[in-house]
Amino acid sequence: GKGEFAHFMLKEIHEAPRAVARTLEGHVDWSRGRVAEGLLLPGGQRRGLRRLWLAGMGTAYHACLLGAWWVEQIAGIPARAVLASDFRDDPPREGEGERGLLVAVSQSGETADTLEAARAAQARGIPVYALCNVPGSTLARLADRVLMTRAGTEVAVAATKSYVAQMVGLLLLALALAEGEEGRVRRSQVLDGLASSVEAVSRSLALEPAMADLSRRLVRERAVYLVGRGPDHAATLEAALKLKEVAYLHAEAMAAAELKHGSLALIEEGTALLALSGRAHLAARLASNLREAASRGADVFVWTHLDGAPFQAARRTYRLPDPGHELLAPLVQAPPLQLLAYYVGLGRGTEIDRPRNLAKSVTVE
Ligand code: F6R
Question: In sequence order, which residues have a C-beta less than 8 Å from that of residue 79 and are 6 or more positions away?
């Protein structure tokens, strides 16, 4: 049941720290400072790996965007996130998939588009590494290798804790694909960060009252815009999806640098602009994007864990907990923005746990 919570979505957002802990459990050999043997690909296959595709739909696709970034940053292997539907529509051509790997991400393991992408890969000799949350699901059964995210059962239609668990799973996969001396220091720093991530994710939930407060500012908006650079942009895509899905609020995520290439024309006095800033070396550039929007009247709200971030243009800056490593910032960004979507939905009187027109698992294309 929902216990003390008014909705499953709220309960499941609060279960994110446990989802992180359980997904790490048994997947990391803490004493040796490396991911567990079971996550590794056979030696030859791993060493020869030339490229990765990461495919999923909806929230899982957003996790893939981050996953591709992590694989490139941590393992140094070229990686591309694709919508599973696009992968299945235009699978790799003859030879293109050689020494490639498809990482298929799906909470339910039953999403038709994702299953078709996996089958298309296998038909071309590309092995499939699945990340899924439901043991014994179709995807888990057909994949060549499986990493179970252990978020537990997710009842609300909107993905919340399962997204956080997917991020952890993809980080573990990136670590599993990395090897050799090069980048060893970074790998152990990421692992150290993961060791404190349960605590960090848990602390991010302390923003709940502030998010409930902000929801009152947004509840009557007709549209909100969200911006970030790089992986922060991926995180805003997911936050926007939550606002659309559970709050029926038109929310559009954009790369911050893209604002001045057209969308700035949408900004008028009082337009709500939400920004994520997870990377120190990009803060000044983001701040300049935000200043430009604020000077056109945007009401800017920023989420960041960074000290002394230069966001004078912001009406409010919400302080996120230290993620332990900059690559892990998306883990602490997610729960507060999920809470925001929840409270905006609550204020707008939507069917939060079962939004209109949607199903938990999309088993038709
Ligand atoms: C959004 C949401 C959907 C799913 C998508 C893929 O909150 O839940 O976008 O993420 O339908 O579902 P799975 O992960 O089960 O393949």
Answer: 51, 52, 53, 54, 67, 68, 69, 71, 72
Model ipTM? Answer: 0.99
Which of 222, 240, 224, 196 is closest to 334 using CA atoms?
A: 240
What separation in Å is there between the alpha carbon of 185 and the centre of ligand 1? 34
Contact 363, 112 (CB under 8 A): yes
Residues 6 or more apart whose CB falls under 8 angstroms from that of 296 comprise: 264, 267, 268
The two tokens of residue 51 are 């490229």
Share above pLDDT 70 across residues of the chain, in percent, rounded to a whole number: 100
Question: Taking the alpha carbons of 134, 161, 31, 278 in that order, is the dihedral positive or negative?
Answer: positive
Helix residue spans in 225-351 (DSSP H): 231-247, 283-295, 329-348
Query: Do residues 144 and 127 make contact, with C-beta atoms less than 8 angstroms apart?
Result: yes
Choose among 115, 126, 110: nearest CA to 84.
115
Taking 3-state DSSP, the helix, strand and coil percentages for the chain, each rounded to the nearest 5, stand at: 50, 15, 35
pLDDT of residue 359: 86
Calculate ∠ Cα 70-72-77, nearest 5°: 130
Question: How far is Cα 100 from Cα 126, in angstroms, rounded to an integer?
Answer: 6
Whether residue 339 has pLDDT greater than 90? yes
Q: Ligand 1 test: best mutation among 107, 113, 338, most atoms within 8 Å of CB?
A: 107
Got the DSSP string for 225-251?
EEEESTHHHHHHHHHHHHHHHHH--EE
- Distance (Å, rounded) from C-alpha 345 to C-alpha 70? 32
For the chain, report the end-to-end CA distance as a whole number of angstroms. Answer: 31
Name, in order, each residue with C-beta under 8 angstroms of 348's C-beta and a sequence gap of 6 or more. 219, 247, 248, 249
Return the best residue to mutate from 8, 54, 59, 350 for the ligand 1 pocket (most ligand atoms within 8 A of CB). 59
**Residue 46: per-residue pLDDT:** 83
DSSP-derived secondary structure letter, 2: -
H or E element, residue 161: helix 161-177
CA 14 to ligand 1 center in whole angstroms? 19
